[in-house]
C-alpha cells in the first residue's frame, strides 16, 4: 500500500507538471482554431494573388487585408507568417540548409511554390532558388534547358513517371513556345488516373533569370514568383560571411545553438506525445503501469533539464546575435553595393554580376583590408577597402562614360543609406523641372541671354527648400548672374550675392543644371571626388587588355564588350606577340558574322592542342553561337590549367548572350582610343616598322613624299573620326572608319607613287610624231594632269599623282563612305587643306596655312611614332577641327545629358518615393491618373476638315496646290491628336486594371508622363514640334500649332505670318507655293527657283501676296550669328548656340538651274542648309539658302562650323 501511495503521489506530481504544459497547448489550439478562418483567408490570398507581387507591394496588400478582416471582426494572427501556417520550423531550417536565401520573402515564395496548384514561374536572377529547388526535390527530377531542342518523348516520359519537370533558361526569345509544354502536360493529364482523382501528378517548374512580359494565355496558367534577393536577404548573407571571417567560432556557436534549441524542443514534443499515447493505450491501472511510471519520472527530469538548456540556449543566442550585430553596418553596406551592381544592367544589358562572384570579392576584401583589434577601426577599413575594391573590379567592365556614372551613383546610394541626401534635390538633378504654369510664372528679366527653357528650370527650382527667391535674384542682379553664366568653369565660380554661402555643393550643382548643362559631368566628377576620394574618379588605367590577360586562364574566356565601331582584334594580336614572342604564329581569328559554328569548334580544338590564342569576333551576329556559349565554357574546364591557350570573345549587347557566361567570364569594356593622337599612334602601330621601311626602300625617289602623305592620311583618319564628338555639328551621319581603310590607303599610296608618277614634261599626248598605246593613255589618266591655276603650275615641278591620290585613294578609302552631301562638303574642305602640292614644299615642321596641322621632320619610322606620342596633344583643341567653342559646349552637354538619362533609369529614384508601401503604390496610380487627366484637359480639339473642304471646295478646278498642302497639314495634326488620345486612354485602362500590358508599352508611356517627357511614338507623329522639349512644352507647341491652322480651316485665309516650323512638312508647302506661281504665270515648274531677301528689321512693313511668295518667320541659325546691320554672318559669342534670324522673303523666280548654282556658289556667300526641327538629317532637310559670309571668316570656315538654319515651331 505504501508503494502505491508513493507512486500515486509521484504520479500526481508528474502529471501536474504535464497539466501545465497541456493547458498551454490546449489554449494554443483553441486560439489557433479561433483564428483559423482569418489565417486561412490570408493564406489563400497569398497562394492565389501574391506570387508575382514584389516585397513592398506584398506587405502593403497584406496590411490592407488585415484592415479588412478587422473591419469584418474576423480573428486572425496579427503577424501572419505564411511559412509558419503550413510548415514546422525544422522545415524552414532544412530549406536554408539546401540553399534557400535566409529572408522572409524567399521563405514565402518557397511556400507558395510548394503549395500552389498552378505551374510555378520562378524569376531567379542568381539561380539560388533553382539550386534550392533541385536539392529539395532530390534525384527524382528532370532538368531541361529551354534554349535547346527538347525531345517531346523526354517530356512525356517525365510526366508518365510523375517526376517533376524543371524547365530552365526561359527567356524572351522562347517564352512563346511554352504553349507546347502545356499541351503535352494536358495530354499526359487526360490519360492519368491520379489527375482524374484530383491529385497534382504532373508538376512543372519554369525558371527564368529576369522578369518577362508574358502572353495573357500563359499568365492564367502560371503562378509567378520573384526570388530576386532583397536587401534583407543580402544583408543576412553578407553578415554570415563577415562574422564567419572575423570570428569563425561565433558563427559555429550560432549554428550549434540553433540545432540545440530545435533538438530540445523536439525532445519535449516527443515526450509529451509518448505520455499521451501511454495514457490513451494503457490497459492496466495507472498505479500498476510500470512503463508509464518510468516515462513520467523520466519526463520530469528531462523537462527540467531541457527547460534549463532552452533558457541557457536562448540567452546564448541573444549574446551571439548581439555580437553579430556589431558588424551589421558593414554587411548592410556590402548588400547595398551588390544591389547597385544589379541595377547597372539597366544601363547596359552586358553589365551583369553573379552573387557567387561578389561573395568571393567580399571575402577578398575582408582578407586584404587590414585586421586591427579595435572593432570601430576594423569596420571602417572593411567599408573603405571593399567599396573601392568593388569599384575597381567593376570599372574594368564598364565603358568610359559609365565609370563616372557608376562612381557617382554608388556615392548617391551610400548617402541615401546614411540619410545625408535630399530626395527632392536629387530628383531635380536627374529629371529637371516639372510642368511649369507659365501663366503664373514671373517674367524673365534676362531675355537677352536666358532662354525660356532655362527660366522654366529656375522657376521650378525656386519651389525647393533653400532656393526660395532665386528667380527674384536674377531680376536684382542680372549682370552678376550673366558673368557667372559665362564662366568657363561655372561649378567652381562663386555664385552672386549670398547664394555661394547659403548653398551646399550639391545644391549649387542644381543651379548649374538649370543654366549650364555642359558642366554637369564635371559636377558629377567633382562631387564624387569630394565624397569618396580622387581614386574613384581617375580610373582610366583600370581597363587594359594586359590586365585582363593577367587575370585570365585557359578555363575562363575574356569577353570584350564593344560599343560603336571598335575592333580590338589587332590589339589582342599585338598583345599575343608581346606575351609569347617565341611563337609568333599562335593567334587565330574567326568571325561569327559567317555563322559557321562547326568551323569554330574545329578551330577551338586546334588552338587548344597548339596552345594558341583564339579570337572570336562579332559574337552578337550569331544567335546560335551565343546559345552554345555555356557549353563552350564548360568544355574549357577540361583544358590544362598551365596551357598558354586563351579564348577571346568580342560582342555588342544582345538579348541572347547567356547570363551565366556574362557573370562567369572576365569582362572588359573595350573602346577605341579617343583623340587624333591616339588614332594616329594606333594606325602607325598597325602599320609596323617593317612595312614602313619596305615602302621607303621601294620609293627611293619619292620617300619624303610618301612619309608626308602617309602622316597626312593618318591625321585625316583621326580628324574625321574625332569630329563625331560634335554630333550634328560634326556630321549629319557619324562616320565609322577602321584601320583597314588606312591600310588600303597606304597600299594605294605606295602603288601610286611607284607606278603613276607625273612626268615633269609637257603633256605627252600632245607630242607629235609618236604613237600612243591605249595602256599608256589610261595610265596617264591617273597622273594628275589637267590641273588648272596655281596647282597646275606647281604640278609641273612635282611628280606626285595628286589626281590619283584625291580621286582614287581618298575617295575609295574615305570619301565614298560619307553619304550626305553636306558632310561631303566638310570632307572636301579638309582634303583640300591637307592634300595639296604646297604640303610637300613646306619646310620641315611648318604648319599649314590655318595653323592646325603640323608635319614632323622627315626621318625614320620611330621619328614619326615619337612625334605622335610626344608632340601631339592628348586632347584635341577645337581649332583643329575648325570649329567654334560652342560645338565643344554642345558635345559636353550631350555627355551630361547621357549621364542624367542613365541615372533616371536606375533605381535610386526609389529612395525618393514615399516610404510607406501603401502610400507608394497608391501615389503612383493616382499620379498616373492625374497626369493623364491633365494631359487630356490641355489637348486641343480637332481641326475641322469638313469646314476647310467647304471653303476651298472639293473639285480639282477650285482647289490650288497651296490649299492641298494646307489640307494635308490639317489631316496630319488630326491624326496626331487621335494617336495621343487613343494612347492615353489605353494607358488609363491599364492603370485601372481593365487591360493587361504584356509588352510594357503603356507602362513606358505612363513613366514618360511621370517624367514630363514626350513618348517616342508621339514624336514621330509631330515632326513640326521640338523633339527635345518637355511634355508640357510639347503640348503647348501642339496647341499653338493647331490654333495656327484653325483660322484657315474656319476662314480659308492664310496666316499673316508664315511660320514654316509649324508645318509638319514644310517642303510640301514650299513646293505648293512654287507650283502655284508656275500655274499663275504659266511657266514650267522645273524652271521656278527661290530667291531670298533678308530684312533688316524684325517686323517688316512689306507684305507679299502668296502668288508672289511669302515672308518666313521663326528661323534659327545654329552655330553662327547674324549681323543685322551688315546683313552678314558673324562669329557667335560663347554659349550663343542659337541665333534668331530676321524675316526672310521667299520669292519664286524663273531661273535656270545653271543660273541658280552660279548665283549661290560665290565666295562671298555660304550655302546654308535649312532643316526642319532640331535634329538634322537628310529626311529633315528642306532647302539651302545662300547667306553672305561677312568679315569673320570665309565660306570654308562656315562649312567647318557646319552652320545651319533650323525651323522653329
Automatic annotation (TrEMBL):
Residues 94-303 form the Dynein heavy chain ATP-binding dynein motor region domain. InterPro entries: AAA_9, AAA_lid_11, AAA_lid_11_sf, DHC, Dynein_C, Dynein_C_barrel, Dynein_heavy_D6_P-loop, P-loop_NTPase. Residues 921-1207 form the Dynein heavy chain C-terminal domain. GO terms for cellular component: axoneme; dynein complex; microtubule. GO terms for biological process: microtubule-based movement. It is found in: Cytoplasm, Cytoskeleton, Cilium axoneme. The lineage of its organism: Eukaryota, Metazoa, Ecdysozoa, Arthropoda, Hexapoda. Belongs to the dynein heavy chain family. Residues 796-887 form the Dynein heavy chain AAA lid domain. Residues 554-668 form the Dynein heavy chain region D6 P-loop domain. Keywords: ATP-binding, Cell projection, Cilium, Coiled coil, Cytoplasm, Cytoskeleton, Dynein, Microtubule, Motor protein, Nucleotide-binding. This is Uncharacterized protein.
Amino acid at each position: 500500500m505504501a508503494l502505491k501511495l508513493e507512486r500515486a503521489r509521484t504520479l500526481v506530481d508528474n502529471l501536474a507538471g504535464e497539466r501545465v504544459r497541456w493547458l498551454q497547448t490546449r489554449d494554443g489550439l483553441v486560439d489557433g482554431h479561433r483564428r483559423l478562418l482569418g489565417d486561412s483567408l490570408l493564406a489563400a490570398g497569398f497562394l492565389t494573388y501574391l506570387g508575382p507581387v514584389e516585397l513592398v507591394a506584398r506587405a502593403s496588400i497584406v496590411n490592407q487585408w488585415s484592415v479588412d478582416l478587422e473591419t469584418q471582426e474576423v480573428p486572425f494572427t496579427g503577424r501572419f507568417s505564411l511559412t509558419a501556417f503550413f510548415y514546422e520550423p525544422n522545415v524552414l531550417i532544412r530549406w536554408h540548409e539546401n540553399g534557400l536565401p535566409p529572408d522572409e520573402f524567399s521563405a514565402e515564395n518557397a511556400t507558395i511554390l510548394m503549395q500552389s496548384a498552378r505551374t510555378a514561374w520562378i524569376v531567379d536572377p542568381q539561380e539560388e532558388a533553382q539550386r534550392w529547388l533541385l536539392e529539395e526535390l532530390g534525384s527524382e527530377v528532370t532538368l531541361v534547358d529551354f534554349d535547346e531542342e527538347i525531345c517531346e518523348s523526354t517530356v512525356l516520359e517525365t510526366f508518365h513517371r510523375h517526376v517533376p519537370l524543371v524547365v530552365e533558361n526561359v527567356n524572351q526569345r522562347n517564352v512563346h513556345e511554352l504553349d507546347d509544354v502545356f499541351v503535352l502536360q494536358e495530354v499526359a493529364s487526360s490519360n492519368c488516373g491520379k489527375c482524374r482523382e484530383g491529385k497534382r501528378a504532373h508538376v512543372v517548374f519554369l525558371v527564368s533569370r529576369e522578369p518577362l512580359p508574358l502572353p495573357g494565355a500563359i499568365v492564367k496558367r502560371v503562378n509567378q514568383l520573384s526570388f530576386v534577393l532583397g536587401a534583407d536577404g543580402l544583408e543576412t548573407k553578407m553578415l554570415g560571411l563577415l562574422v564567419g571571417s572575423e570570428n569563425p567560432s561565433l558563427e559555429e556557436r550560432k549554428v550549434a545553438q540553433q540545432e540545440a534549441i530545435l533538438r530540445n524542443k523536439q525532445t519535449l514534443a516527443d515526450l509529451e506525445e509518448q505520455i499521451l499515447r501511454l495514457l490513451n493505450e494503457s490497459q492496466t491501472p495507472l498505479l500498476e503501469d510500470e512503463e508509464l511510471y518510468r516515462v513520467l519520472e523520466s519526463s520530469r527530469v528531462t523537462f527540467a533539464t531541457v527547460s534549463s538548456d532552452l533558457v541557457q540556449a536562448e540567452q546564448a543566442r541573444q549574446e551571439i546575435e548581439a555580437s553579430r550585430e556589431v558588424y551589421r553596418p558593414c554587411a548592410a553596406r556590402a548588400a547595398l553595393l551588390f544591389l547597385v551592381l544589379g541595377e547597372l544592367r539597366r544601363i547596359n544589358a552586358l553589365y551583369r554580376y553573379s552573387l557567387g562572384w561578389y561573395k568571393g570579392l567580399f571575402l577578398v576584401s575582408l582578407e586584404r583590408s587590414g585586421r586591427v583589434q579595435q572593432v570601430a577601426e576594423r569596420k571602417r577599413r572593411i567599408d573603405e577597402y571593399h567599396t573601392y575594391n568593388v569599384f575597381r573590379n567593376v570599372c574594368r567592365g564598364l565603358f568610359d562614360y559609365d565609370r563616372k556614372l557608376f562612381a557617382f551613383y554608388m556615392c548617391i546610394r551610400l548617402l541615401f543609406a546614411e540619410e545625408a541626401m535630399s530626395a527632392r534635390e536629387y530628383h531635380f538633378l536627374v529629371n529637371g523641372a516639372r510642368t511649369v504654369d507659365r501663366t503664373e510664372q514671373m517674367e524673365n528679366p534676362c531675355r537677352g541671354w536666358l532662354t525660356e527653357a532655362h527660366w522654366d528650370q529656375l522657376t521650378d527650382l525656386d519651389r525647393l527648400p533653400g532656393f526660395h527667391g532665386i528667380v527674384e535674384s536674377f531680376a536684382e542682379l542680372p549682370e552678376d548672374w550673366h558673368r557667372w553664366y559665362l564662366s568657363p568653369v561655372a561649378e567652381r565660380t562663386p555664385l552672386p550675392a549670398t547664394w555661394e554661402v547659403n548653398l551646399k555643393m550639391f545644391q549649387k550643382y542644381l543651379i548649374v543644371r538649370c543654366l549650364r548643362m555642359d558642366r554637369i559631368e564635371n559636377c558629377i566628377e567633382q562631387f564624387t571626388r569630394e565624397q569618396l576620394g580622387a581614386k574613384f574618379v581617375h580610373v582610366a588605367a583600370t581597363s587594359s587588355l594586359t590586365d585582363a590577360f593577367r587575370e585570365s586562364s585557359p578555363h575562363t574566356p575574356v569577353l570584350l564588350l564593344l560599343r560603336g565601331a571598335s575592333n580590338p582584334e589587332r590589339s589582342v594580336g599585338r598583345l599575343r606577340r608581346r606575351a609569347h614572342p617565341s611563337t609568333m604564329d599562335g593567334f587565330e581569328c574567326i568571325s561569327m558574322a559567317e555563322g559557321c559554328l562547326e568551323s569554330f569548334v574545329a578551330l577551338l580544338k586546334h588552338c587548344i592542342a597548339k596552345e594558341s590564342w583564339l579570337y572570336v569576333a562579332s559574337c552578337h551576329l550569331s544567335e546560335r553561337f551565343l546559345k552554345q556559349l555555356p557549353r563552350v565554357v564548360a568544355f574549357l574546364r577540361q583544358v590544362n590549367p598551365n596551357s598558354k591557350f586563351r579564348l577571346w570573345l568580342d560582342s555588342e549587347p544582345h538579348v541572347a548572350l547567356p547570363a551565366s557566361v556574362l557573370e562567369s567570364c572576365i569582362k572588359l569594356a573595350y573602346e577605341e582610343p579617343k583623340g587624333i593622337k591616339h588614332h594616329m599612334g594606333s594606325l602607325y602601330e598597325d602599320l609596323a616598322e617593317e612595312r614602313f621601311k619596305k615602302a621607303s626602300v621601294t620609293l627611293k625617289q619619292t620617300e619624303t613624299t610618301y612619309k608626308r602623305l602617309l602622316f597626312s592620311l593618318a591625321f585625316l583618319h583621326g580628324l574625321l573620326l574625332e569630329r563625331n564628338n560634335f554630333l550634328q555639328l560634326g556630321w549629319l551621319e557619324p562616320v565609322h572608319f577602321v584601320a583597314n581603310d588606312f591600310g588600303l590607303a597606304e597600299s594605294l599610296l605606295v602603288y601610286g607613287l611607284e607606278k603613276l608618277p607625273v612626268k615633269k614634261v609637257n603633256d605627252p599626248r600632245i607630242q607629235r610624231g609618236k604613237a600612243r598605246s591605249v595602256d599608256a593613255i589610261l595610265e596617264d589618266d591617273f597622273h594628275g594632269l589637267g590641273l588648272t591655276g596655281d596647282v597646275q603650275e606647281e604640278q609641273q615641278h612635282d611628280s606626285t599623282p595628286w589626281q590619283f591620290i584625291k580621286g582614287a585613294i581618298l575617295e575609295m578609302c574615305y570619301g565614298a563612305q560619307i553619304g550626305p552631301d553636306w558632310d561631303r562638303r566638310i570632307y572636301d574642305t579638309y582634303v583640300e587643306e591637307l592634300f595639296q602640292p604646297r604640303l610637300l614644299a613646306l619646310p620641315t615642321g611648318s604648319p599649314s596655312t590655318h595653323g592646325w596641322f603640323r608635319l614632323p621632320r622627315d626621318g625614320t619610322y620611330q621619328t614619326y611614332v615619337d612625334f605622335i606620342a610626344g608632340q601631339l596633344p592628348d586632347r584635341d583643341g577645337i581649332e583643329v577641327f575648325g570649329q567654334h567653342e560652342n560645338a565643344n559646349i554642345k558635345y559636353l552637354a550631350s555627355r551630361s545629358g547621357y549621364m542624367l538619362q542613365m541615372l533616371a533609369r536606375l533605381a535610386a529614384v526609389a529612395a525618393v518615393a514615399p516610404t510607406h508601401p501603401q502610400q507608394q503604390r497608391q501615389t503612383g496610380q493616382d499620379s498616373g491618373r492625374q497626369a493623364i487627366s491633365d494631359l487630356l484637359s490641355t489637348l486641343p480639339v480637332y481641326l475641322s476638315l469638313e469646314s476647310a473642304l467647304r471653303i476651298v471646295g472639293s473639285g480639282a478646278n477650285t482647289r490650288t496646290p497651296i490649299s492641298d498642302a494646307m489640307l494635308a497639314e490639317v489631316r496630319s495634326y488630326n491624326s496626331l491628336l487621335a494617336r495621343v488620345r487613343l494612347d492615353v486612354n489605353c494607358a488609363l485602362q491599364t492603370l485601372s486594371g481593365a487591360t493587361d500590358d504584356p509588352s510594357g508599352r503603356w507602362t513606358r508611356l505612363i513613366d514618360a508622363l511621370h517624367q514630363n517627357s514626350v513618348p517616342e511614338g508621339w514624336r514621330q507623329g509631330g515632326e513640326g514640334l521640338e523633339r527635345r522639349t518637355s511634355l508640357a512644352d510639347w503640348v503647348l507647341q501642339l496647341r499653338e500649332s493647331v490654333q495656327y491652322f484653325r483660322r484657315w480651316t474656319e476662314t480659308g485665309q492664310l496666316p499673316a505670318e508664315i511660320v514654316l516650323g509649324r508645318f509638319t512638312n514644310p517642303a510640301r508647302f514650299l513646293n505648293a507655293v512654287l507650283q502655284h506661281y508656275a500655274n499663275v504665270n504659266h511657266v514650267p515648274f522645273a524652271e521656278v527657283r527661290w530667291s531670298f531677301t533678308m530684312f533688316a528689321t524684325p517686323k517688316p512693313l512689306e507684305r507679299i501676296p502668296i502668288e508672289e511668295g511669302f515672308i518666313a518667320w521663326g528661323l534659327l541659325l545654329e552655330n553662327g550669328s547674324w549681323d543685322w546691320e551688315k546683313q552678314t554672318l558673324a562669329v557667335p559669342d560663347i554659349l550663343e548656340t542659337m541665333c534668331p534670324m530676321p524675316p526672310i522673303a521667299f520669292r519664286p523666280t524663273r531661273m535656270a538651274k545653271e543660273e541658280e548654282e552660279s548665283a549661290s556658289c560665290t565666295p562671298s556667300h555660304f550655302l546654308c542648309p535649312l532643316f526642319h526641327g532640331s535634329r538634322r538629317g537628310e529626311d529633315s532637310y528642306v532647302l539651302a539658302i545662300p547667306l553672305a559670309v561677312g568679315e569673320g571668316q570665309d565660306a570654308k570656315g562656315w562649312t567647318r562650323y557646319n552652320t545651319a538654319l533650323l525651323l522653329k515651331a
